[in-house]
Hints:
Belongs to the small heat shock protein (HSP20) family. This is Hsp20-type molecular chaperone. Residues 6-118 form the SHSP domain. It comes from Halococcus thailandensis JCM 13552. The strands form 2 sheets. This protein has a 4-stranded antiparallel beta sheet, covered by helices on one side. A 3-stranded antiparallel beta sheet has the order 3-4-5. The model has no long low-confidence stretch (mean pLDDT 84). β6 (90-94) and β7 form a beta hairpin. The relative contact order is 0.22. Helices cover 6% and strands 35% of the residues. The chain has a single domain, classed as Immunoglobulin-like (Sandwich), CATH 2.60.40. By secondary structure, it is mainly β.
Amino acid sequence: MSALSNALGDLPDPVFADLYESETAYLIVIDLPGVSSETLDVRTEGTHLHIEARREKNLPMAFRYLREDRPLFLDTDLPLPPTVVASEADGSLDRGTLTLRLPKREGTDETTIPITTGEGPGSAAET
């Protein structure tokens, strides 16, 4: 989980993102002003979430740039926590705000390892 949180913190300064966690899911909210569903690609690749977002800027007639700091694109890979079920993830884009819900796997992959005692190979009883 901290790898995802750290990766969100490493996004470019103009990108604002929040990360939430419940017992059943993670929720990522990213501000992407000017991005539409046609210029947004969100997918999982193995243990990473890939987000590519593009937008257009229109330079008003009779004006020129003195300063241009608003990026036109975001292209990032975020590490997914091992408990995420990527195939059940969903998202929405509303007025430039991308919301991704990443469900967690139910239960744990915890397995109890049986420990035996006795006269097995390598035991002190063989010597």
